[in-house]
Design brief:
By secondary structure, the protein is an alpha/beta fold. It folds into two domains: 174 residues, Peroxisomal Thiolase, Chain A, domain 1, CATH 3.40.47.10; 155 residues, Thiolase/Chalcone synthase (Peroxisomal Thiolase, Chain A, domain 1), CATH 3.40.47.10. It is 31% helix and 23% strand. A five-stranded mixed beta sheet has the order 1-7-6-4-5, with helices on both faces. It has a four-stranded mixed beta sheet with strand order 8-13-12-11, sandwiched between helices. The chain is globular and about 60 Å long. The structure holds acetyl coenzyme *A.
Amino acid sequence: MKKSVIQSTGMFVPPNIVTNHDLEGFMDTSDEWIRKRTGIEQRHWIDSDKVTGASDLGFEAAKRALDQAGWTPEDIDFIIFATLSPDIMFPGPGCLLQAKLGLDSTPALDIRQQCTGFLYGLATADAYIKTGLANRVLLVGSEVHSSGLDKSTRGRDVTVIFGDGAAAVCIEGVETQADAGLLATSLHADGNYAEALMTELPASKFPQRMIPGLDIDDARYYPVMDGPAIFKKAVKMLPKVINESLEKAGMDLDQIDLIIPHQANLRINQALGQYLKISDDKIFHNIQKYGNTTAASIPLALHEAVEQGRTGKSGDTVLFVGLGAGLTWGSIIYRYL
Ligand code: ACO
């Protein structure tokens, strides 16, 4: 039977590092507050005088993943691009990335699932592979948050957590009897919480998308978040969705070698570890260096976990889990072939 196998990973973050102290220069915040409440020490933001879209960062990550897999762009059957910060309103960055890769007919799909973009993307890739629609899938998660953040004190709760970055994985259908690939997938959404984390404008729902006379300082142009509500939801739903996947796979938590969670807040992931009663070294953290890179966050963490030798060997079993805007949440158990 065909299994979806992650053949390689690649990542790219823009070189410009923004420390918590740098943020103190333009809003009322402090390194101490940010570290204590989120664990974040720095993030990467694109150069503010250069045009850089999610597809540009995604292209860099994709090149690295393709090189590592030994694939050329022509080997890709299907591109999946996850982002909440597309380069332009339309067309989506999947098509823009496809052209940057020198391709002109490979199908490209965009998904808008925010922090669970990688989970939804991996599940989609698996479905395409299992139904024979594609065999080699390039899945990219990429975000350019910094160009759309409210950098005044008004936006400080959101602005300090977001970083720019991209990561990509090459996924291939492989015929094998081995118990490998995606062992269980659990995906959820609850649109009743859409307003708990959103950017409202520009919005097609209004008779005039560009509201005449509206100031670009209007708060609706920037992401707003009910942080405490989402925090509580995450602490409640993440363990639940982990147990759901474990049950589906008929596995116990001690059969998971490493949990790779979405990097939204170090405290959320530490609380998850405490709830599950597992040691902190069984959960991967890199939010300290990158902040919340949303759709890029889980594959970026996977890439670093593989580089550090914490996963990637045959038989290694990882559990990806995340919750974010939508709300959307989910978990996937994956075993290396
Ligand atoms: N610097 C200094 N003070 C701040 C900052 C800041 N950057 N941000 C908020 N504060 C202040 C608030 O104004 C408030 O002050 P007050 O007590 O005088 O009113 C105080 O700090 C506490 O604010 P809270 O919002 O209650 O702080 P909290 O501990 O909840 O931390 C945070 C905020 C980090 C946003 C947290 O709620 C969180 O991580 N929430 C979940 C985020 C998440 O998981 N999002 C989903 C993924 S993102 C996606 O899907 C795109």
